[in-house]
Predict the structure.
Amino acid sequence: MGIHLSDTVSLLPGIGAKARIDFKNLGILSVRDLLFYMPFRFDDFSLKKSIQDLSVGETVTIDVTICSIKSRKSFKRKKLTITEAIVEDETGEITVTWFNQPYLEKTLKPGREVSLAGRIDDRDGLSLTNPVYEPKGKRVQTGRIIPVYGLTGSLTMRRIREAMLVALGTVEELIDWVPSSLRESEAYPSLTQAIREIHFPESPESLQMAIKRLKFDELFLHQLLFAQVRKQREKTSAHVIPIDEPFLKTLVSSLPFVLTNAQKRAAWEMLQDLAKPTPMNRLLEGDVGSGKTVVAAIAIEQVLRHNFLTVYLAPTEILASQQQEALGFFLDQSIGLLSRGHCKIGQESVKREELFEAIESGKVKCVVGTHALLQESVPLQKVALIIIDEQHRFGVEQRHALLETGDRQAPHLLSMTATPIPRSLSLTLYGDLNLSILDEMPKGRKPIATALVPESQRSGMWAHIKTQIQAGEQVFVVCPLIDPSDRLGVKSVTEVAKELSQSELKGVRLAVLHGKMKAEEKTRTIQQFRDQEIDVLVATTVVEVGVDIPHATVMVIIGAERFGLAQLHQLRGRVGRSDQQSYCYLLPETLSDQSRSRLQAMVETTNGFVLSEKDLKLRGPGNVFGNSQSGFPDFQLATPADVEIMKKARDWALKLLESDPEFVEHPLIKQRVEQTFENVHLE
């Protein structure tokens, strides 16, 4: 009996109980799930050479015989085991070294014929370090373009590749939901062929075609989902919130600052949407510091005046606490806060039951929380407005699911993002949303002075920073992740904080913030920083979004070349929140031509929209060999650089919907769209 797509992965050879749990942690339950688990990069081991023809720096496969192999402990590092082998072919011999793999001494015995793949270095003459190995000529791990997957637990790359190879024997069951006429017109491979080639490509060309096809699938489905959301919204009724112009004029004139024209325009667009009997679905896109919160507050105040409830969803507990405080400043109302670590009404901590009662009775008409709030048994019967902050964490399927409330009236949705992207790209990425853009900064804000600081100038930079601290200003120091095993950033933050406190910033009040800290610890540290009890906060990118510290005027980004332009711009936006001159220092560790261009763009402009255009040009379509695929949240493969494929997907979706709006002639497309919505989780 063969293996089928719906079968559990544990039916594949070599997948025991532990591996099954590890696969589950990656979201892989069935053989189908495994086939759609995409590599994040590829190693090209297709170049095969004899030993005498090898050159330093080449990535190659060699077919050899093991002559000798021995393991020993390292003299310098006691925990390190070094396994050294001499291997040969008919043209010569070469030294091979593996680290912490002593079992190889029993596996690769002298006389055994193997294929080895890796990069040739020149340590003590030509050598091969930590190569991949397999029986000579097998060509699963060597001798071809090899997929590299994300790992967890006990899973090894070898085990995933072997399991994938067996699973690929089932792909004849894959049903291709994209019409054959479309595939032929674009010269795309079939779904079966694309899945085979994405995992075990026969050539760079066939891999590129497979990637194009699978990216198109993601983007095409996305456009079809947009169409369904728009269609459903037109049929759905929402609470009508009439515009009260005299009240709005009073509200705006009472603000302690003058709204920019962009803020006025965006607020008016929202208020007009709220006054309609169908649900608003609008994206408010604004650069860091452009004043999105006050625009949202105007919409909230209008809803609260008509005794309806507003729910504000923030991506992190830190941001939820901060936004509850900010909305309390703008609105003459008791604002609720509900997250895993906090439950408040205004500034007072309360029990969950008390908050729920206050919401039910109408005492609290605006509640702020993380996305987990949607999972709580909160009495949200009369929700007229849901605001989703940093909306890129919330895909089209989740926005669609929010329309499926138990209430007869669906909520109005306002999504917000501080990640500026070109308008044309916004319309393609967020085709279900109407767009409002804040492209002006509030008056009085000084541009943040940004500098690329070489090693030779860093002592002068730290001296300047110390004078800023003595003048009462505060400093962020952001660290990159040192290696994949330190996903929460503890290592880098702890090391940098220790080094600074013993040298350049000795005697300064310094604290750390990283992903491994408990929620209440993070919140307490941020609050102490805001209250100026801390001068310098050494942190990971946990501070990237929304952390608002008015007295912070210096941002130091260590290892700046490791960050993308959008992320660097977000980090820079944590300073410059007042009328004081602010500074951003970029401290690269190594600089390639591309990373220098990226960092130079940061120095030249503080405009996020200009930077986003530059980012697209610099990044290009990306090179899949050795570069991680950074897909959008809804996608595994598609990236912001895939503008041409996006346009194709949009054009084909419009063409199909024009001729067959109900998918009568395309039942497989209908099934695919419906399945996507069924599998949605609001998190």
